[in-house]
Amino acid sequence: MTNLEELAQHAATMAKTIVPTALSHFRGELGVEFKSDESPVTQADKAVEADVRAYLSKHFPEHGIFGEEEGMDLKDSAHLWVIDPIDGTRSFLSGNPLFGFLLAHLIDGRVEIGVIGMPALGEVFIGVRGTGARLNDAPVSVSAQRDLSKSVLYVNEGDKIYHNHPEVFARLMQAGQTRRMAYDCYPHALLAMGHVDVVVDYDLQPYDYLAVSAVIEAAGGIMTDWSGAPLTLESDGRVVSAATPELHAQILKVLND
C-alpha cells in the first residue's frame, strides 16, 4: 500500500500543478455563476477541480473523491480525497491574493494529510499525521502562547457570527490582545506558522476545514468544532484552531459561556 509520505508527495504535486490554471483566471475575465446558497462559482473553481480529478483518476483510480464542485465519487473507498479548488471564491473574484487551494486525504474516515496551497503567494503548506508540517519544504510550527489575553486572535466569517450569534461575537470582541477580522484558510495557515495564536471560524463545509485541520495538527496545534469535538465529514462547520491546549480551552469557554 502506498505510504503516507508517498501520498503526501502526490498531494504536494497537485497543489503545484493547479497553480497555472488558477492564476490564468485570477484578476482576469471570469464567468461567474451562483449556487443555490448564493455563493459564487467561477470557471477557475471548475477548472482547478477538473485538474485534480484528472490527476487522481490517473494515479489513484480506486480512491474516492469529494470535491466542492462535482460532489462525491467512490464514497465506499477506504481512501478519500477532499478538494476545495478555490477556497475563498469571493476573495478570488475581488482580486485578493489570499484565496487558497485545499486538499485532504482521509483513510477510513480519519484525516491523514492536508495541503493548504496559496497559488498567488507561491506557498504550499503540507501536514502529515505524525511527521509534522512544512511550508515549501521548511518545517513550521505553532506558537507557544498559552494566555488568550496576550494572543493574536483572528475571527473568520465575523459578519455571519454577528448575525447568528451576537452574544458570541460580543465576547470575541473582548478576547485576545490583537484581533483581526478575516475569511478563508490563510489565517489558519498563519497559525500553523506561529504568527497567529487562535482562529475562530464559522459556517464551513468539510472541504473547507479537513485539509486545514491536518496542517494545524501536524504543526502542533489543535483544531476542533466549537464544542471541542474532533472534526469529521459530519461536523457542523463551526470550528476553532488554537496553538496550545491552554488557548483551546480558553477560547472554547468564550464560545460557549
UniProtKB/TrEMBL annotation:
<dbReference type="GO" id="GO:0007165">
    <property type="term" value="P:signal transduction"/>
</dbReference>
<keyword id="KW-0479">Metal-binding</keyword>
<feature type="binding site">
    <location>
        <position position="208"/>
    </location>
    <ligand>
        <name>Mg(2+)</name>
    </ligand>
</feature>
<protein>
    <submittedName>
        <fullName>Inositol-1-monophosphatase</fullName>
        <ecNumber>3.1.3.25</ecNumber>
    </submittedName>
</protein>
<keyword id="KW-0460">Magnesium</keyword>
<dbReference type="GO" id="GO:0046872">
    <property type="term" value="F:metal ion binding"/>
</dbReference>
<feature type="binding site">
    <location>
        <position position="84"/>
    </location>
    <ligand>
        <name>Mg(2+)</name>
    </ligand>
</feature>
<feature type="binding site">
    <location>
        <position position="68"/>
    </location>
    <ligand>
        <name>Mg(2+)</name>
    </ligand>
</feature>
<dbReference type="InterPro" id="IPR020583">
    <property type="entry name" value="Inositol_monoP_metal-BS"/>
</dbReference>
<dbReference type="GO" id="GO:0008934">
    <property type="term" value="F:inositol monophosphate 1-phosphatase activity"/>
</dbReference>
<dbReference type="GO" id="GO:0006020">
    <property type="term" value="P:inositol metabolic process"/>
</dbReference>
<dbReference type="InterPro" id="IPR000760">
    <property type="entry name" value="Inositol_monophosphatase-like"/>
</dbReference>
<feature type="binding site">
    <location>
        <position position="86"/>
    </location>
    <ligand>
        <name>Mg(2+)</name>
    </ligand>
</feature>
<dbReference type="Pfam" id="PF00459">
    <property type="entry name" value="Inositol_P"/>
</dbReference>
<comment type="similarity">
    <text>Belongs to the inositol monophosphatase superfamily.</text>
</comment>
<keyword id="KW-0378">Hydrolase</keyword>
<feature type="binding site">
    <location>
        <position position="87"/>
    </location>
    <ligand>
        <name>Mg(2+)</name>
    </ligand>
</feature>
